Amino acid sequence: MRTIHNNNSELVVSLEEFGLSKYEAKAYLTMIGKGSLAASEIAYYSNLPRTKMYPTLKKLEKKKLSVICRQKPLICSAIAPQEAFGEIVELHERRSKNMKKIVDILQKINDEVQNPTGSEERRYCILDPKSALEKVSSLIASSKSSINAILDVWGLRLISQCKTSLLRAIDNRIKIRLIIANQCIGNESLLTLPEGIHLKIGDVFSNTIIIDTNSMVSIDSSNGKAAVFTSIDIFGLSQLRNFEDRWNNAIEINHPVNTDPDIIAKAIQLTKAIENGLSSHLFVHFINAGDDSPGIFVKSIEKCGIKISDNHVHKVLNIIDFALRMQFSGSLKHDKNSNTIIIQSKPESKPVLPWAILLTLYLKYIGNESKIIQSSKQGSCAQIIYIKLSKPIP
Question: Could you tell me which of 6, 234, 226 has the C-alpha nearest to residue 133?
Answer without folding.
Answer: 226
